[in-house]
Every structure is written in C-alpha cells, then in structure tokens.
Amino acid sequence: MPDLSHGDNAAAVNALRSAVMLLGRRLKHQRVDESLSPTEMSVLGTLARCGSATPGELARKEHVQPPSMTRIVALLEAKGLVRLEPHPEDRRQKVVSQTETAEAMLEESRRKRNVWLAHLADGLDEDDWEKLRAAAPVLEKLAHL
To answer: What is the chain's mean pLDDT, rounded?
Structure first.
C-alpha cells in the first residue's frame, strides 16, 4: 500500500476520490430509463460484462445481500430485462440472463453517456488527452480490483 503520510500520495488519493465521486454522480444523471434504479442498472451492466449468473453470484459481484439481489432480479424480470432459466447442473438454482431489450437499453445508455463525456472532454487540450489516454487503463484496473 502506498505511504499516505507522503503528501503527494495523500493528495493524489484525495483528488482521485473527489473526482471519481463527482464524475460518477454526474454520469448517473445521463440515464436512458429513469424507471431503473442505479443498482438495477449496475446489475444489468454486470450481466453484460460477465454473462449469465446465478442470483448468488450477482449478489457477490454487486456487493449486496442475496435476498436483496433476489428482489432486484424479480423487478428486472417483471420489466422484461432479465430472464430466469434453470441452472444446467443444479435444478434448485436459477441462472439470470439479460434480454435483448436490456442489451439495447444498455447500448443506448452507453452511447448517451459516452456522448456526454466526450462533449465534456472537448474542453481538454492535447496534453490533457494524452494523460487521459494513459490514465484510463489504470482507472479501469482500479475499478475492478
């Protein structure tokens, strides 16, 4: 772990936390479907990235309790965004998959957020863009640790 008593490290961590939180809040407002909660959108995003999963696996990936995930999956199923199918090896379990409707909605959501972010980034100069291109893989890695 980096030494946070070192002023530069502490300042970098503080700036990163602040910027990520503010940017995340602003990005959350760029939604295609206002009827979905951020948690529901996150579950759909996880299914898009990781593929089908059991509710228990989704709960672990989303850092929520299994009963909460069961409720979220039921809401998404009622909205036609996921389907439940029998687990191929354990018939007591279900596997959650996103529907084509969810795929289309997520694609439109990504497009809208990318357009908004690109518009915001129009204010960056070439030096800033170079730094952003270098930082993006590091931020991606950090987001998935």
So the answer is: 90
Residue 3 has pLDDT above 80, yes or no: no
Distance CA 44, CA 5 (A): 39
**Which of 43, 78, 80, 77 has its CA nearest to residue 63?**
43
Residue for token pair 């980034």: 121
Considering only CA atoms, give the Rg of the chain.
18
Residue 85, SS3? Answer: strand
CB of 81 closer than 8 Å to CB of 105: yes
Look at residues 70, 45, 46, 43 and name the one whose alpha carbon lies nearest to residue 56: 70
DSSP state of 97: E
What distance in Å separates the CA atoms of residue 9 and residue 3, rounded to the nearest whole number?
7
Cα angle 21-43-108, degrees, rounded to a multiple of 5: 80
- 55: nearest Cα among 71, 37, 35: 71
Interval 30-43: pLDDT, tens: 877 778 888 899 99
Q: What is the spatial distance between Cα 120 and Cα 114, in angstroms, rounded to a whole number?
A: 10
